Amino acid sequence: MILIILVISAIALLISFVYTSRNSVRLPLTIVFGLLLVGSVVFISKNDNQHYGMVKTTTAKTSKLASVSANKQLNLLLYQSVGSADKHRVYVYKQTASQKKTQHTKASVKVTNHVKTSQNTPKLVTKTTRWTYKSNAMKFWFGIAGNDHELISTNNTFYVNADWAVLSSSQAKAFSKLMKQQQPTLKARAKVYVQNQVKTAMTKDPTMSQAEITKVSKAAAAQYQQNAVKSLLQQVKAND
Hints:
Blueprint: H1 2-19, H2 23-50, E1 54-64, E2 75-82, E3 88-93, E4 103-104, E5 111-117, E6 123-133, H3 136-142, E7 150-160, E8 164-168, H4 169-204, H5 210-239
Parallel strand pairs: 2-8, 5-7
Antiparallel strand pairs: 1-6, 2-3, 3-4, 6-7
């Protein structure tokens, strides 16, 4: 509406100043329409530069978070550095384990990303702050500018557990390559580790049933795999 007032006052000012011959009429009209014109310009400028009539509104959205790794022993959150000095990152993630395509945060100066360790279920909390009009009246006057719900900032916080790895895309590739290279060695060592754990358990309890032995074997295999993954991750990060 303010733009309409601006246009009307400009036209009316021109008509009153040029086509009104009587000074007693022209002067008041010129003052009135001149003030309307100047006032419209001032408020339009304040709305554009200072967001006059608007307030910051923040909304929060919580999403599930799942590992992007195909390896069940590795819970992984990926990121890609944008620009130099690793100042900005785009994070790659999934919301469910069954999700085929990954998602990623936007590469924008208005988007900030943080990773925090939590003991709760992994999740992504997205807080979005926008400019919105404080009342319908303000929206009536300035809404034609199309700046309602203009984005100010987006803050993504990834809450992951302590056993999660946060790797760059290059580190993830290096880990995958190292994992394939070490696979035969890891298999052989895992077999020996499981056998030793079973022997230790049977020494403590010679009457163990087959079901108990199987349970110990599975637990030992999982433990060895977890330790092996942790060790390989440390190597990758050290060589990066």
